[in-house]
Design brief:
Blueprint (H helix, E strand, L loop, with lengths): L1 E5 L4 H12 L4 E7 L4 E6 L6 H10 L3 E6 L2 E6 L8 H8 L9 H17 L1 H21 L4 H25 L6 H14 L3 H25 L1 H8 L4 E6 L2 E6 L8 E4 L9 E3 L3 E5 L1 H4 L5 E4 L3 E2 L4 E3 L3 E5 L7 H12 L5 H31 L4 H14 L3 H20 L2 E3 L2 H8 L1 E6 L1 H5 E12 L3 H12 L5 H12 L8 E6 L3 E6 L2 E7 L4 H5 L2 H12 L3 E7 L2 E12 L3 H10 L3 E5 L4 H11 L2 E3 L4 H11 L4 E6 L5 H6 L2 E5 L4 H6 L2 E3 L6 H35 L5 H24 L4
Helix pairs in contact: 3-4, 4-5, 5-6, 5-8, 6-7, 6-8, 7-8, 7-13, 8-27, 9-14, 12-13, 12-14, 13-26, 13-27, 14-26, 14-27, 15-26, 17-18, 21-26, 26-27
C-alpha cells in the first residue's frame, strides 16, 4: 500500500514516521521517499490494518492520503507536527465541488484560518505577536513582566508540547520537540520567562525556514511530476475524446496538440514531429522525429498536431520510471548517510545523559549553583538536537539527484554518488558505447571507376541483412548512387555474396575468400594489410572474376569519445576498454582514443577483469548491451547508455538518458561536488555544536543563542545543499 504524506519538513520527520509505522505488528517494511512525500508499506493484513497505519501517521500529526490506482483517494488528514501549511491547505480543499452559500463560504474561510494557524508560519506569527504584546505590556507594567512573558511563552509552547506528547506516544522520545519542551518548561521554572518566550519564537522561525527550504529541495522532483499530463486525447475513427492517462493501453492512437506534453511513450505516426525533450534530457535543441521514431512521455510537442501510437503501459512510461528511480534511490543510502543514521540514534540520548550530569554533578560535588548549572544543562539539550546533522546528507543527495534527473542523468541512489566521487578506474564496453554501434564504410580503393564499383557492390549486398552489407548499401545511398536490381543472387555463408547485375557477374566477399586474387596485386595487398592493422574489416569486390577493388569498414568511434576520455583522465580517472572484439580491432581503436584495451573477452572474462581492476580502487563500468549486464552489476558503479537494452538499464546504477558520453565527466564532477557538499554540511553542523557546547559550559551563551545556533545550522546546511540544484556539473 502506498500513501502520500503531507507535513514533512525535513528527513527527520520522514524517519520518525518510518520508525513509528515499523513498530506496528505485521509491518514487514515501511519506506518513505522524502522527495516524493510517499510512504510505501509492506504488511500482513491479518495482523495490522490500514486504519492502524493511518492512526499512527495522523497521530504523529501528519496528513495522510492513500494512493489508489495511480491516483490519490482521500483517507484522512490532520494538523502536522512539522506544520506544512501548504499541504494542509490542499487537504482542506479536497472535497467535491458543489453549490455554495454564505454559510459554506464562512465555513470555508474558517477552515482556511484553522489551516493557517496550525501551519508553521501561523504558529510563528502567533508566537511573535504574543511576544511583541508582552514586551509592550512589560514597558508599562514592569512588575508583571514575568507574567506577560510567561503567557507569551505558553502561546509558543502549547503546540510544541502537544506534538511532543504525540511523538512520545508512538515511541519518538528524543526528537527536537521533546528537547524544546523540556528546555522551555525548565526555563519557566527558573524564572527566565523572557528567554523562554524568545527561545520558542526563534525555534518556530527556524521551523518555518526549514519548511520553505524542504519545499525547495523537493522542487526538482515536483517539476518532473508536473510533466505528466492528467488526460490524453484518444483517437477513435475520425474523432477524438479526452480520457484519463491511466485508461490508455498499448496500441491506442492519441493526438497531442502544439504546446501539450506527450502523456505516454509512443511511436510517431506523422511525417515529422518536432519535440522539445529538454525537461527529460536537458538537451535544449528540439528534436525532429519521423514516422516510426520513438518518443518519450513528458516531451513537449511543437508547431503542429501530432499523432502517436502508445507503447507503454499505464504507470510505466519513461517519466514514471524516472520518478520511480528517484523514489527508490532514497533506499540506496550512501555509506556516510548510513553512518550518520546510526550515529544520531545514540547521539541524542547520550547528550541528554550528559546534560543531566551537567545539571547535577557541579552542584552536588563542587558546590555549584543549582540554577546556573540547570540553565546550562537546558542550553546543552537544545545544542544536542541532531536536526542539522541528520538533514546534512539527504538534503544534499536529494538536491543532486533532482538536478541530475533534469539533465537526463538517472542516478539510483546516494551510494552511487558517493562511489562516483571515489572512482579510480572507468571501464568501457566498445560497441555502442565508445563506438556508434554500426559499421561504416571508411575507405574505398578501386581499380577503375569508384562509384561504379560501389554501385555494383551495393546491388549484390542489398538483399542481405548482415551489418556489413547494410553498411555498404548505406554508403551507396549516401553517395546518391542509383542501385540497380540483381538477379541470380546467392550467398556463401560467412564468405561472399554473388549475383548478376546488368549481365555482369559481381562478387563481394572476405579477404580470406579472395586471398588468391589479392596476392596477385602486391600494391593493393599491402594497402589491405594496412587497413587491417587499423582494426578495419575489408571486403573485396570482383567484377566478371576480375579484382575491382576493396571496401574497408569499421564501427567508428563516437565523435565525442576522445574528448570525453581526455576529460576523465584529467580528473584522475584511469580508462580501459573491455571488448569481445578481436584484439587487432580493439587495440587499433585503443591507440586512436588513447586508452588501455582488453580484447577478445567473453562476458565472464569481463567480470574477471573488473575484479582485477578493483584492486586499484573503485571501478565504474559503462556499457549498453545484454552481455554487459553482469559487468554493470558487479562493478562498484554500473552506468548504462540510454540507447542500451532494458537488461543493461536495469542492472546499472546510473542511466544516461541522452546516450551521450560527454555526460560521464559531468557525473564524476557531480559525485565529487555532492560529497564535498556533504562534508561541508557535516563539518558545519558538528562545528557549530562544538563551539556552542564550549561557550555554554563557560557561561558565555544562553538558551536563545543555542536555539539560534541550532536553527541557523539547520537552515545553513539546507541552503548549502540547495546549491546543488543550481550548480553545473559540466
Amino acid at each position: 500500500m502506498s500513501w502520500t504524506i503531507s507535513g514533512m519538513d525535513c528527513p527527520s520527520c520522514a524517519k520518525s514516521i518510518e520508525k513509528a509505522v515499523d513498530r506496528l505488528p505485521g509491518i514487514h517494511a515501511a519506506r518513505i521517499s522524502f522527495a516524493r512525500e510517499r510512504l510505501n508499506t509492506d504488511y500482513n493484513p491479518s495482523e495490522v490494518t490500514q486504519d492502524d497505519i493511518q492512526k499512527v501517521v495522523t497521530g504523529l500529526g501528519f496528513g495522510l492520503n492513500e494512493v489508489i490506482d495511480g491516483g490519490v483517494g482521500k483517507v484522512k488528514r490532520s494538523s502536522n507536527c512539522c506544520s506544512s501549511s501548504q499541504a494542509q491547505s490542499q487537504a482542506s480543499t479536497a472535497t467535491p465541488a458543489r453549490d455554495v452559500d454564505a454559510g459554506d463560504i464562512g465555513s470555508h474561510l474558517n477552515n482556511k484560518l484553522k489551516v493557517f494557524l496550525s501551519g508553521s508560519t501561523g504558529k510563528m506569527l502567533m508566537a511573535g505577536a504574543a511576544l511583541l504584546i508582552a514586551v509592550v505590556l512589560a514597558q508599562f507594567n514592569p512588575t508583571n513582566a514575568r507574567v506577560y512573558y510567561s503567557a507569551a511563552a505558553l502561546v509558543g509552547l502549547v503546540p510544541i508540547f502537544f506534538n511532543t506528547l504525540r511523538s512520545i506516544r508512538f515511541g519518538q522520545y528524543f526528537g527536537i520537540q521533546t528537547l524544546m519542551t523540556v528546555a522551555a518548561v525548565g526555563a519557566l521554572f527558573l524564572g527566565e520567562a523572557l528567554e523562554a518566550s524568545m527561545v520558542l519564537f526563534l525555534f518556530l522561525i527556524g521551523e518555518a525556514l526549514e519548511q520553505r527550504a524542504a519545499n525547495k529541495a523537493r522542487e526538482g522532483v515536483t517539476l518532473l511530476l508536473d510533466l505528466q499530463p492528467k488526460v490524453a486525447r484518444l483517437v477513435q475513427g475520425s474523432h477524438s475524446q479526452e480520457v484519463r492517462v491511466e485508461d490508455l493501453s498499448v496500441g491506442d492512437v492519441i493526438e497531442v496538440r502544439p504546446g501539450e506534453r506527450l502523456p505516454a511513450d509512443g511511436i510517431v505516426l506523422n511525417n515529422m514531429a518536432i519535440l522539445d525533450e529538454s525537461a527529460l534530457t536537458g538537451e535544449s535543441i528540439p528534436r525532429n522525429r519521423d514516422i516510426n521514431d520513438a518518443a518519450q512521455a513528458g516531451s513537449l510537442v511543437l508547431e503542429k498536431l501530432t499523432t502517436f501510437r502508445v507503447t507503454s503501459e499505464a504507470g510505466d512510461n519513461t517519466l514514471d520510471r524516472i520518478i520511480r528511480l528517484i523514489e527508490e534511490s532514497e533506499e540506496h543510502k550512501a555509506p556516510v548517510a548510513r553512518f550518520i543514521d546510526r550515529f544520531s540514534a545514540w547521539y541524542t540520548p547520550a547528550m541528554m545523559i550528559v546534560a543531566l550530569l551537567v545539571a547535577v554533578i557541579p552542584p552536588l560535588f563542587f558546590n555549584g549553583a543549582w540554577e546556573a548549572w540547570i540553565y546550562k544543562a537546558l542550553t546543552l539539550l537544545i545544542i544536542s538536537c541532531p536536526c542539522a546533522l541528520v538533514i546534512s546528507v539527504p538534503a544534499a543527495v536529494t538536491s543532486s539527484l533532482a538536478a541530475s534527473a533534469r539533465c537526463g542523468l538517472l542516478i539510483k541512489g546516494g551510494a552511487a554518488l558517493e562511489l562516483l566521487s571515489r572512482a579510480k578506474t572507468m571501464a568501457f564496453d566498445k560497441t555502442g558505447t565508445l563506438t556508434k554501434g554500426k559499421p561504416q564504410v571508411t575507405d574505398v580503393m578501386a581499380q577503375g571507376d569508384v562509384l561504379e564499383m560501389v554501385r555494383l557492390a551495393a546491388a549484390v549486398e542489398r538483399g542481405s541483412g548482415h551489418p556489413l552489407a547494410e553498411a555498404v548499401v548505406r554508403y551507396a545511398e549516401d553517395q546518391e548512387v542509383n542501385i540497380p536490381a540483381v538477379s541470380d543472387a546467392q550467398s556463401i555463408t560467412g564468405k561472399a555474396a554473388l549475383g548478376s547485375v546488368g549481365g555482369r557477374r559481381v562478387a563481394v566477399g572476405s579477404t580470406d575468400y579472395f586471398a588468391d586474387e589479392l596476392s596477385d596485386d602486391a600494391n593493393l595487398y599491402n594497402q589491405v594489410q594496412g587497413l587491417l592493422e587499423q582494426g578495419k574489416t575489408v571486403v573485396v569486390v570482383t567484377i566478371d572474376n576480375a579484382l575491382a577493388g576493396v571496401l574497408a569498414l569499421r564501427d567508428e568511434p563516437r565523435e565525442e569519445a576522445k574528448d570525453t576520455l581526455n576529460q576523465l583522465q584529467e580528473l584522475g580517472i584511469e580508462t580501459v576498454m573491455l571488448t569481445g572484439d578481436n584484439p587487432k580491432t580493439g587495440k587499433a581503436l585503443g591507440r586512436e582514443l588513447g586508452l588501455a584495451v582488453k580484447a577478445g573477452l567473453m562476458p565472464q572474462d569481463k567480470l574477471r577483469e573488473i575484479d582485477a581492476l578493483g584492486g586499484k580502487g573503485t571501478v565504474v563500468m559503462v556499457g549498453d548491451g545484454i552481455n554487459d549486464a553482469p559487468a554493470l552489476k558487479v562493478a562498484d558503479v554500473g552506468i548504462a547508455m540510454g540507447g542500451g537494452t532494458d537488461v543493461a538499464l536495469e542492472a546499472a546504477d546510473i542511466a544516461l538518458m541522452q546516450n551521450r558520453l560527454q555526460d560521464l565527466p559531468a557525473l564524476i564532477r557531480r559525485g565529487r561536488q555532492t560529497m564535498l557538499n556533504i562534508h561541508q554540511n557535516v563539518a558545519l553542523a558538528l562545528g557549530l555544536k562544538g563551539i556552542f557546547l564550549m561557550t555554554t559550559l563557560f557561561g558565555m551563551t544562553g538558551l536563545w543563542m543555542a536555539v539560534l545556533a541550532d536553527t541557523g545550522a539547520t537552515v545553513l546546511v539546507t541552503l548549502n545543499a540547495l546549491r546543488l540544484l543550481r550548480s553545473s556539473s559540466d
